[in-house]
Amino acid sequence: MGSRLIKMLLKKGYSIKALVRSGSENKLPGGCEYVIADPFDATTFAKEIIDGSIFIQLLGVSHPGPRKKKQFQTIDLASARGSITAAKEAGVKHFIYVSVAQTPTTIMHDYQKCRAEAEALIHSTKINSTIIRPWYVVGPGHYWPLFFQPFFKLMEWIPSTSKKAKALRLVTLKQMLNTLIYAVDHPPKEGVSIIEIDGIKAIR
Q1: Cα–Cα distance between 174 and 144 in angstroms, integer?
Q2: Three-state SS at 99
Q3: Pairing between strand 17-20 and 94-98?
Q4: Which of 70, 81, 92 is closest to 40 using CA atoms?
Q5: Contacts of 155 (CB under 8 A, 6+ apart)
Q6: What string of pLDDT tens digits covers the 204 residues of the chain?
């Protein structure tokens, strides 16, 4: 998602500085500046953030699943803490965070809990922020949920499961990228703006 988003933002005329680990800088699109740092340690990159800039936090566990509880703590939450701390210190004007739908579930409770903790930290900083809450993003390497789409649609029509099924609908990679671009272009005037799944699907 990150590389695709960078290309779209560069095309729109934004200047981009990406945080990468050593050895990953060659994977970035051309025209993108970079900072080699530890995403879990705000002191390694806070001074590289331009005052009044937009910070987009995308780092997280790939292919999240119930067995990755520890990684949600050590990667998702830890990187969010580092980014939020650095953004606050640097005077970022708009913080964008990709969270997860908070409709109660049992299978992904630990993942939701870590993302909710990050959201609470964002609120505490008083930085103008946008929080985007997808459930599952369908795209390259992540198409398998489409096989269950008919079942999901059926659940939306059953009264007892309709509310939860609608709250946990799939979104596409294109919809997520469009939403991120929208968030960049439309920062909240004050406080925290939250874009739920309905909002993600509505943005073109």
Answers
A1: 17
A2: coil
A3: unpaired
A4: 81
A5: 161, 162, 164, 165
A6: 899 999 999 999 999 999 998 888 999 999 999 999 999 999 999 999 999 999 999 999 887 888 899 999 999 999 999 999 999 999 999 999 999 998 877 778 999 999 999 999 999 999 999 999 998 888 765 555 555 555 566 666 777 666 666 667 789 999 999 999 999 999 999 999 999 999 999 998
Q: Give the CATH number of domain 2-139+170-197; options: 3.40.50.720, 3.40.630.10, 3.90.550.10, 2.70.98.10.
A: 3.40.50.720
Which residue do the tokens 């936090």 mark?
Answer: 57
Cβ atoms 112, 100 nearer than 8 A: yes
Q: Nearest-5° angle of CA 20, CA 183, CA 22?
A: 0
Separation of CA 109 from chain center: 17
For 38, the token pair is 């530890």
CB 119 within 8 A of CB 131: yes
> Which amino acid would we find at residue 114?
C
